[in-house]
Amino acid sequence: QKEAMDRTHRWAKRSIMAHKQNYQALKKQGLYGVVQGGRHLDLRAESAKVLSGMDFDGYGIGGSFSKNDLGEAVKVVNQILPEDKPRHLLGIGEPEDIVEGVSLGCDTFDCVAPTRIARTGTIYEMTNEGHRRINLLNTKFQRDFSKPDESCDCYVCTNYTKAYLAHLFRAGEMLGPHLASLHNLYYIVNFTRKLREDILLS
User: Quick check: is 197 in a domain?
Assistant: First the structure.
């Protein structure tokens, strides 16, 4: 793991040198250094220190951690990374994980989860208890003519029902995954927008 991390640092140094020599790229594109170290907190701390010494436009926090050690890993890294540069948490896209990432100082996120789960008939829904996933292939949704998510005003929730989406998936129609993806992406974007508003108000 240490050898791979050191290789990443050497590559990072060469990358930032090449980036700064390309004036056009420098004007139009930011370059992020990605903190590595797997599940080893000492290696993550070392990686954060090394990359902090390079003038990147922002920093990514690489994956290879489980939900259980996500918080500790991010906390260790963010205590070291510069506070005036954006921090991007890679591969994190579930609502509860985004909340944890924000609370620990991360600014942006990316993940395939919203579209990946949509392809198998699963959508996000907001309930009184919070976020939950529902699988439209569940038999009970065949005759459920309610909105996919009562609290959502996206195109899908405004125009279709759970029963219709369930029918599309059961019939193997491409429109099913397409509509589920649209809803899930809208849900996540709207969720993060509200998070940002809360941060600005606090």
Answer: no
